[in-house]
What does this fold into?
Amino acid sequence: MSLLGADFRRDLEIRRYPLLIYVLVPLTALVLQAWLPRVAGSFDWFDLPFVITVYFALGWRSPIQGTLMGAAMGLFEDALSHHAIGVNGIAKTVVGFLAASVGVRIDVENHIARLVLNFLLSLLSSAICIFIYRVLLGLDFTWHWLTELFLAIGNSALAAVLFPLLDRLQVRD
Amino acid sequence: MESFFVRYRNIVVLLAILVAQIVGLAVQVRRTDSGRNVLDPGDGPGVRLIRLWANALVSPPERLIHSSTSGVADLWRNYLDLRHVREQNQQLQGTIDRLRLEQAELLEDARQGERLQALLGFQEKYIYKTLPAQAIGSSGSDQSRVFYIDKGSADGLERDMPVITADGIVGKVRDVFPHTAQVLAINDQTSGAGVILAATRIRGILRGNASGQLEVVDITADERIKPGEKVLTAGGDMVFPRGLPVGVVEKVVPDPDQDSFIDVIVKPAAHLNRLDEVLVITSTEPRFPPQEQHDLTTSEALDGAQAAAIEEQQKAAQITAERLPGLTEPNVPPDQQPLNDSTPPNPMAQPPQPLHPDRFSPAATTDQEGGQPAQADRPHPAGQSPDAQAQPGQQRPPRRNP
It folds into this structure.
């Protein structure tokens, strides 16, 4: 199967899920993201809302829906932190838009393509956050590239497990 | 115009959402007098509303998960705790008695400190009231080291209340909701606490770094600071009471931004990554809390009883010593009593007999001087040399050359 095939991708139907899934999965991701780091301790190198945003944006193949999904998840994460509301919001808005835009052009059934996309978008999300903190807001904010790399790897690993599970939830005609 | 929006609607929606968020960010940042940009510590009404909604949505499931997981864990833990509980109870009782005695010993120092503080017009604040709370969730981001506890404004919590565990300080209450509160951990980059190094008495500001480590910053290089030194709260930050444990010095590294300054990396006393139950200090007063007063009174009484018991024991020992025959001589002065005799009880052992005594042997000389025959022909037990007859522990005399 060709990885890049715009005409082929357009022939495929857009993924659809039961309405409850659209509510429950993002909410569960947000709750678990807030709860799991307490269990994981220092090894909290994952961002469940990010992975869910990428998954739905890829499946929907609608940049507007991907943008809105990313904005909602990011703002929600910001609201739970003590940082300014909008940093994660902007990063995940861009991620949702790009994932949906790329989803039109690549084969989203290909696991390797999805994992690579997850990894790259995670790095991009981190880069946007750092840019906002240090350049846009001019805040005194230190970061470590290794942490962001581990986060990207963790997100890819999480996607490798979650994406096949979520694929089973879609409505098939 | 309509076709433009239809044609570029994806980009238009993206830009509209991005611009809205950027404007929202701009109103949350303010510039200080020193020209630095900082986040507004007090959230505006709109921001606070968003945080409230997010909290209201996430907190109930978090409480549910926490209570169910802790319920199962408690069942198992309770079963395990029941084993050896009697022995542990006895050990704990002994520890309490010992600590009470130690407390009584320290009581005088504390009272003297209070008197001196009163003379200097300085009032020490003691932890007067605490509220236990459970940590139920976190921000989910390692860039924001905050966590949520299951007590809020309905339980009397307010902003900037210190949060501690039995091991050491943890953070301070940053935001309060009706039934939950957000706690800013001390290892966050935006946190700050006044600390003092216990041995060297060097003061500094404690904060977190990007890796979540604690570091004391803005300290001039000092060779006296060594790993293992205790770090305590200094009490000058108007949040944490003085003298609470913070951690121990892990290592000292040069400050990358300022020459001749160092950063002291501190290993936290509290397990910041695995917090479960915490205590929120809801009130500090310049006096001991009632429970502590009660403990002090008990310790004082126990200390008095202990002193009386020791005196009784000494009297009993005296009477017993007087009654024992042979240990006291009625006709001998007290300083010459056998009980006070400090001479070694075992007399010096005789040196072993030489194998071939001659005229230089001490015994032979003595015998010759005394007109007695030498003991050269004295028979030895079969299979034993005279050396072997020496008593254990006796030192063998140096062999003489003929």
Observations:
- The two ends of chain B are 130 Å apart (CA to CA).
- Residues 161 and 173 of chain B are 5 Å apart (CA to CA).
